[in-house]
Automatic annotation (TrEMBL):
PANTHER family: EXO-ALPHA-SIALIDASE (PTHR43739:SF5), XYLOGLUCANASE (EUROFUNG) (PTHR43739)
Source species taxonomy: Bacteria, Bacillati, Actinomycetota, Actinomycetes, Streptosporangiales
InterPro entries recorded: WD40/YVTN_repeat-like_dom_sf, Xyloglucanase_GH74
Name by which UniProt lists this protein: Exo-alpha-sialidase
Organism of origin: Spongiactinospora rosea
Domain of life from the UniProt record: Bacteria
Biological processes, Gene Ontology terms: xyloglucan metabolic process
């Protein structure tokens, strides 16, 4: 393995950690101190990977910055790079996701609040609103989840630039087959148990927490819902519950192993009402058979009691390892597919997002 870079976005700044050849990570001094960093991305398509960070200036509002020297210096467009057209009458609340396209050079997608998708064709310098999703007839009925009406997942197809999917909390999972011009809700099989009997599988209105896919098998998706864990084998046309072997199917992140599309990871929480790790200790549950069975791993993680959750974007899987950060500012890494863990950082601010790459 070559040099590895870990980008950790927190409530108060961005931290970059680096390692060499399986060595321990060293955490650099904070960037954007006191500024919230809600999304980060590592775009490997240039001669040097481009780092992207969605920041929130507080009363100055959100923005997106980029670095072409691995975080040493940062640049920002002269005008707000992500902004709603004036005729929408809407103000951007936050950028929740930055996702470089695997099939279109220069294209970067941004998921934003309230419930919007933006597209950049210049590597993330400037973005334009995806009007097809914004004008969807379901939109007037979308309701925000506890974290807002956030578009937090963007899944562009690795080979077909016309195929893309998104998840919006608490609207549901939507997909497009024409590059974002038209969209359909794709939530069949996802149960919403608080709805009346006979109406628990609505077309939309699901509180999706996160969706993950493997580039080698893009039609297979994994979804962590407010009320369950699901798998789709047809790019969201149908969903099957796979959380039966977990101690709790409530949680936020879900990630796929970088080399094995049947291997997935979740961090279960006790319940919606008691959002702490199951048993008050961090345990990562791994399935090697696409969710049919699950095994808990926690060696190297604190024995507890712990009370901090792992947020939807604060876990990632890459060739550099499996990583997650917690709401009490700890970051952990596994180099053996999640079976044992080591601590990378302690006492950081609330960890919001984690991304890793081999340089």
């Amino acid at each position: 393995m070559g040099d590895a870079l870990l980008a950790i976005g927190t409530r108060k700044g961005l931290f970059l950690a680096r390692s060499r050849d399986d060595g321990a990570f060293e955490v650099d001094p904070v960037r954007f101190s006191t500024i919230g960093v809600h999304a980060v991305a590592v775009d490997p398509r240039g001669a040097v990977p481009r780092l992207l960070a969605a920041i929130e200036y507080g009363h100055f509002g959100p923005s997106v910055m980029w670095s072409d020297d691995l975080g040493e210096t940062w640049q920002e467009a002269d005008r707000p790079p992500v902004a709603f057209p004036e005729d929408t009458g809407v103000t951007l609340t936050r950028v929740w996701q930055l996702q470089p396209s695997p099939s279109e050079p220069g294209v970067v997608w941004a998921g934003a609040e309230p419930g919007a998708l933006f597209r950049s064709e210049d590597g993330g310098r400037t973005f334009a609103l995806c009007t097809g999703l914004w004008n969807h007839p379901h939109r007037p009925q979308w309701q925000p989840g506890g974290g807002g009406l956030c578009l937090h997942t963007v899944l562009p197809h690795p080979a077909d630039p016309r195929s893309i999917a998104v998840a919006v909390s608490a609207a549901g999972f939507y997909r497009s087959a024409d590059g974002g011009a038209g969209w359909e809700a794709a939530n069949r099989g996802i149960r919403v148990p608080f709805r009346p009997e006979g109406d628990q599988y609505p077309e939309f209105g699901q509180c999706v927490h996160k969706v993950a896919a493997h580039p080698g098998r893009p039609d297979r998706l994994y979804l962590q819902h407010h009320f369950g864990v699901y798998r789709s084998d047809d790019f969201g046309a149908n969903w099957t519950a796979i959380g039966g072997g977990l101690p709790s199917d409530f949680g936020f992140p879900i990630v796929v192993h970088p080399d094995r599309p049947d291997t997935i990871y979740v961090v279960p929480l006790e319940s919606d009402m008691d959002r702490v790790p199951v048993g008050h200790r961090y345990q990562v549950y791994r399935s090697d058979d696409a969710g049919d069975t699950w095994t808990a791993f926690g060696e190297g993680l604190p024995p507890g009691p712990v009370h901090a959750a792992v947020l939807r974007d604060a876990m990632c899987a890459s060739p550099a390892g499996i990583f997650f950060g917690t709401r009490d500012g700890e970051v952990y890494a596994s180099r053996d597919d999640g079976e044992t863990w080591t601590v990378i950082a302690r006492h950081l601010p609330d960890v919001l997002t984690v991304r890793a790459a081999v340089l």
